[in-house]
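Hi there. Long-time user, first ticket. I'm pasting a complex I've been working with (about 227 residues overall). I'd like to know whether the download I got is complete or cut off, because the file seemed smaller than I expected. Thanks.
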Amino acid sequence: DVKVTQSSRYLVKRTGEKVFLECVQDMDHENMFWYRQDPGLGLRLIYFSYDVKMKEKGDIPEGYSVSREKKERFSLILESASTNQTSMYLCASSSRTSGRALGELFFGEGSRLTVL
Amino acid sequence: GQSLEQPSEVTAVEGAIVQINCTYQTSGFYGLSWYQQHDGGAPTFLSYNALDGLEETGRFSSFLSRSDSYGYLLLQELQMKDSASYFCAVSPNMGRRALTFGSGTRLQVQP
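Hi, the file is complete. Here it is re-exported in full:
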């Protein structure tokens, strides 16, 4: 069974703390993504990576950074958490090949972060 | 940039047919995807259209018209378990492998 695993389902952090969200996939996918989901706003892309050590900014990268040192692992870092980063964070992966794979992402269960 | 429009809520009864529309404005377009998300769950892939026309997968079908920048998801023989949020998403081009999502349509199926 293919899987994208996010390390924490629920986190509570204080303003100014550094936060690490980890994501691991077992499908040997080249592409990995971090989205943020808020009610009424859908899923918004924070960062994505199409190869080890490669990253590209998404639509809302401010306040976030990412790391991809190994193909299967993609980490999202909040250097100094703020209350407006309280949200559901979704990691996803996809294959690089063409066709249906272009539109098919595999998502993790999400990490719900609360910043107090 | 990219923007997608879909209705925020749809209500239907068990056994009925429902259509969820999606219009998009993008600087590039490669294909349209649909995802289902139950409350508290992860989004799961339903379908992908790169060419005009209808794609059928069991009770679900998806349609794309590239000339109209429009697509829809058709759900037939609705079941209570179909109550969920449905998102359309575009692949802007081959080079950008990340999808841009709409804000989602919450479908409520009533008995």
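A couple of notes from our side: DSSP finds no helices and eleven strands in chain A. The first strand of chain A starts at residue 4 and ends at 6.
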